[in-house]
Each structure stands twice: as structure tokens, then as C-alpha cells.
Amino acid sequence: MQNLTQLNHFKLVAQEGSFARAAELANISQPALSNSIRSLETRLGLTLFERSARPVRLTSAGRTILARVEAILFESRNLEQELVNLDAGQSGHVRVGMPPVFSTSLAGPIIAEWHDAHPNVKLDLVIGETTDLVAGLRDETLDVIVGDERDLRQGTDDLDLTELPPQAGGAFCRAGHPILNIRHPQPTDLARYKFAGTHFPEAVLRAIARKVGRDIRSPEPIIAIDSHNIAVLRDAAIESDLILLTTSGAVRNALALGVLKRIPVDLGIDAVWHIALRRGRVQHPAVPRFVAKIIEISKREFDHRLAPSWPIASMTPSRG
């Protein structure tokens, strides 16, 4: 059996196309990594890389064994995780990825209830776009992610997906906003105001433009204030005439306080998310329980049974 360290060095060079970058990732010197690759080639009786090419390229022999090497390393990490799990019990480390809107809507109650049951398990929460989170799942820097359904429609054969109940999206404005004076507002009534939101896909932007009667070809962007930071967008909407496009859950506490109001129009921007796991990967015992908690909280939100965070919502709002 070949040395797993050498196989990992081979994978890193193949991945990076550079001995220097691979050495940095392996945390060893470049000469040491070169010696490791040469030793592997000697043991196999094969030349694995075309070293004169820039970037460094795999030979036909290298390409032939790459997939098998990746599978061996994957199973090796699975074995290590199984051994850790046997010893870990309630301890350990779980790494989770979520998109901005989902994390703002539901991560708080999910983490609070899960942590109460697993107080000794360390949790890292990464917020990012679904495409970046999927990459983290594949390179095993993340254990479980929640992703936007629109970004999980293709190229996910290596993932196990669980669809969550849809979360109601809508338009929200400050208390006292002029649009609230309209008895039965229509989507087109929103067109005179600026929108704030979180990196909507182009197809969603076109749908919003059609709903509110804006020309998608106009140089003026549909979303005037675009940010991953929902708290910033929420506060900006509270202090201005911006209209915030997001889910009800993302502004649950502000609605309970009365500082934001839902505008009764249907823009068709409900959110659909999926839980994603790397297929075949051995997980820390706390991961399935975290997945179960995501499903439970999502269902409670869908059924309108998720209460505001009252210690926050009971605070007296101020504008100043």
C-alpha cells in the first residue's frame, strides 16, 4: 500500500498545478514535496507529472490514477472520522455553511436549541453564497450546508439533498412609510421606491421587475442596496424609505417590534432551500442531529409557530 502522505502530495500538485503552492498547502518545503513525489514515482515505476509544463500537468499515467487516489484519501478521512466518533461522544467539531438570508431567518433558533443539547460540541458557522458553500462541502472544509434551490439544480450527483419547506418572501418597509397609506397596494405601487436585498439571481430580478412594472433593460439597478448583511439592510429600511425584499423570518423581531411592516403585495419571491451533505462521507454523530434541528425549525417557521426573540422584540425602539 502506498504512503497516504505521498498520495496526498500527489493530489495537491495535481489540484494546484504547482509544486510551490502544493508545498504551501502541505506545510512542507518545496524540496521535501518534490522528494515525496519522486519517491512515489519510483515506487510506482511511473512518471506522474510533466514538470516542464506551466502549470505542471499530469501525465496520462497520472490522470489514470488520480480518481482512485482521491477515493483512497476520501475513505482514509472517513476512517479517521469514524475513529474520532468512537472516542468523541458529545465532544468534537461541526462546520456548517448557510446563505445569508437563511442564516438570518432561522440560524439563531436552530443553533440555540441544538447547542442546548450538545454544549460540548464546537460549531463553526460560515455564511456565503451557495456555490461557495458547495465547494466547501466537496473539499471537506464544511460538514453540512443549507443551499438555495436555484443553485442546486445541476451538478449535485455527489450530494444528498433534503428539501426544506418554502419560506415566505415579501416586501417590508418602515412604520409610517407612505406606501402604507394605500389601502390595497399593487406591486406596481412599489416601483417609485428603491429596493434593498441580498444578491438575487438574475432570473429573480427579472421577475421582480416585471411584477413592479420596471424595465429590466434600464441602467438603473432593480436592487439599489445589495448586501449579504441582512442586519444592515434591515436597519437601513427602518431609517429610510427603502423597501426591503427578504423573508419574513429575516425580519421577525423587527416586525414584532413594529418598526417594520409587511407590504401586502405578492412578488413571488418565496425562498426554497435544501440541506446538502457529501454523499458517502462519514459524519460526526452531532451532524445528523443538526440536520434534524434544521428540518424541525424550518417546519415550525412554515407553520407560523416560530416566535420572535422576545428579549429583543420587547425592547423599546428608538430612532436617533
TrEMBL record:
InterPro entries: HTH-type_LysR_regulators (IPR050950), LysR_HTH_N (IPR000847), LysR_subst-bd (IPR005119), WH-like_DNA-bd_sf (IPR036388), WH_DNA-bd_sf (IPR036390). GO terms for molecular function: DNA binding; DNA-binding transcription factor activity. Gene3D superfamilies: Periplasmic binding protein-like II, Winged helix-like DNA-binding domain superfamily/Winged helix DNA-binding domain. One of its GO terms (cellular component) is cytosol. Keywords: DNA-binding, Transcription, Transcription regulation. PROSITE patterns: HTH_LYSR. Residues 1-59 form the HTH lysR-type domain. CDD domains: PBP2_LTTR_substrate. Belongs to the LysR transcriptional regulatory family. This is HTH lysR-type domain-containing protein. It comes from Ruegeria marisrubri.
